[in-house]
Design goal:
Multidrug-efflux Transporter Regulator, Chain: A, Domain 2, two-stranded antiparallel ribbon, 5 helices, 2 strands, transcription regulation
Length: about 110
């Protein structure tokens, strides 16, 4: 995944109404998942929630797991593990890119 794709997916630009339409979830369900700390929308100065495409994907995953009977605390724990793993991968990728850039700048 390139940096542009990542920033595009993670940019918080959608209102709860759009997210509701995309996911099929009610506003109440979306707010409940936020309250249970399963997702973290940004807030505008006026308090309006803003979501990203990554948030929409996460909500779809949460809804599927809830439907399968998984408890919210179990989902939160699993999401935290996934987020930490992704952070580790991102750091590793940045380090590798830096090493490659340094290597090729020295030679050429």
């Amino acid at each position: 995944m390139t940096t542009n794709e990542s920033s595009y997916r993670d940019k918080k630009v959608m209102s709860i109404g759009i997210v509701k339409e995309l996911t099929g979830l009610s506003e109440r369900q979306i707010r409940y998942y936020e309250k249970r700390q399963l997702l973290f929308p940004d807030r505008t100065d006026t308090g309006i929630r803003k979501y990203s495409f990554s948030d929409v994907e996460r909500l779809m995953d949460i809804a599927d797991q809830i439907e399968e009977g998984v408890q919210t605390h179990e989902i939160r724990s699993e999401l935290a593990k996934r987020d930490e793993l992704q952070k580790t991968k991102d750091i590793r990728n940045k380090m590798l890119k830096g090493q490659l850039n340094a290597h090729f700048q020295k030679k050429y």
